[in-house]
Amino acid sequence: MQLQTRKNELTDSDFLELIQAKETSIYRIAYGYVQNHEDAKDIVQDAVCKAYAEKNRLRDADKFYPWFYRILTNTAISFLRRSSRMISADLEELGLSSLDDEERWNTTLLVREALNGLNSRTRTVIILKVYEDMTFPEISEITKKPVPAVKSMYYRGLKFLKERTQYHESESPYPSRYSE
After folding, report:
1. pTM beyond 0.85, yes or no
2. pLDDT, tens digit, 9 for 90 and up, residues 110-126
3. Contacts of 83 (CB under 8 A, 6+ apart)
4. Close Cβ partners of 59 (under 8 Å, ≥ 6 residues apart)
């Protein structure tokens, strides 16, 4: 996409074009935090408004997406703090796809609880990697953390989630292929 801007300016039409180009991705990230369509729409709307109000402070228009995703994730985290809601993860992405309905529901609750136990930075890294299939360098740019730190947060977060779900499943009266 060719931006019609000077180095430090982002026009209204450029801003709108950039948002529209990634609207599905933007929504999925917000939805990944709240697992509620209306709340996700509110988060996206708030993030777009915040970004639009601050667009003239963006120093390099080519860095729009990392800048915007940072605003979006911060807005989602703030929303969660205000509303005290928990997020959930996609079970298939965590390797828990072949569960029956009751076991899937129980595991979803366990994953939500485990995700709630992660700090917000680790949770952000997992959501960007799992829901958006972003690369570690892309996540690094968004979070302003070095790539090795991002990888470490991601793998530690996954290990924590798996350990928590396995621990709770071993206490469950339902058999699980993960509790052996």
Report:
1. no
2. 666 777 778 888 888 88
3. 39
4. 8
Positive or negative CA dihedral for 91, 92, 94, 99? Answer: positive
Token pair in block for residue 48: 């777009």
Closest CA to 132 of 180, 68, 178: 68
Per-position b or e across 110-137, b if 16+ CB within 10 A of its CB: bbbebbeebeebbbbbbbbbbbbebebe
Q: Residues 6 or more apart from 106 whose CB is under 8 A from it? A: 172, 174
> What is the structure's pLDDT at 67?
92
Q: Which residues of the chain have pLDDT under 50?
A: 1-6, 84-91, 96-99, 101-102, 172-180
The pLDDT, as a whole number, for residue 88 is 39
